[in-house]
Amino acid sequence: LFLLDTIPCLLSPWSEWSDCSVTCGKGMRTRQRMLKSAAELGDCNEELEQAEKCMLPECPIDCELTEWSQWSECNTSCGKGHMIRTRMIKIEPQFGGTACPETVQRTKCRVRKCLRGPGMEKRRWKEAR
Q1: Confidence check: pLDDT of 122 > 60
Q2: pTM for this one?
Q3: Within this chain, do residues 52 and 69 fall inside the same structural domain, yes or no?
Q4: CATH number of the domain that residue 18 is part of
Q5: How far apart, in whole angstroms, are the C-alpha atoms of residue 86 and residue 106?
Q6: Considering only CA atoms, which of 50, 51, 39 is closest in space to residue 9?
Q7: Is 23 part of any domain?
Q8: Which residue has the higher pLDDT, 114 or 94?
Q9: In this protein, which residues make up the domain named Spondin-like TSP1 (predicted)?
């Protein structure tokens, strides 16, 4: 009866490490082994599972942008012109994340017709000379 206390744990070999718990970045992996000796033979305090950290390549980070600004005023006071709106990059793409789309958009605008007095063009042309 006293000999039973001295029987060592009979353990299976460790399994292979599991895959990392994530597909990118920091995760955990585990491995197990099993108790082969009968439990009646006394307590076995050996660990049956181990875990360790694992690191895979960094996860892709996609570009992130703010909302569009309001459209600017038309850049002319009469006739055809354009206005723009912008948005800012909040997060630059990294590790193969999606690239940033356009951050500036232009659109045409038209303010009231420009009034030209008779002879305005000729006068300007003389001044330019």
Answers
A1: no
A2: 0.54
A3: no
A4: 2.20.100.10
A5: 9
A6: 39
A7: yes
A8: 94
A9: 63-114
Q: Centre a 10 Å sphere on the Cβ of residue 119 and count the other Cβ atoms it contains.
A: 8
pLDDT at residue 37 above 50? yes
Instruction: Identify the DSSP state of 7.
Output: P
Q: How far lies 96's CA from each of 3, 16, 100, 101, 120, in Å? A: 63, 31, 12, 15, 58
User: Which ranges of the chain does DSSP label H, i.e. alpha helix?
Assistant: 120-128
Tens of pLDDT, residues 108-117:
998 888 887 6
Instruction: Determine the average pLDDT of the residues in 102-124.
Output: 76
Candidates 17, 8, 3, 15; CA nearest to 36 is 8
Q: Give dist(CA 117, CA 66) in Å, integer.
A: 46
- Distance of alpha carbon 56 from alpha carbon 129, whole angstroms: 71
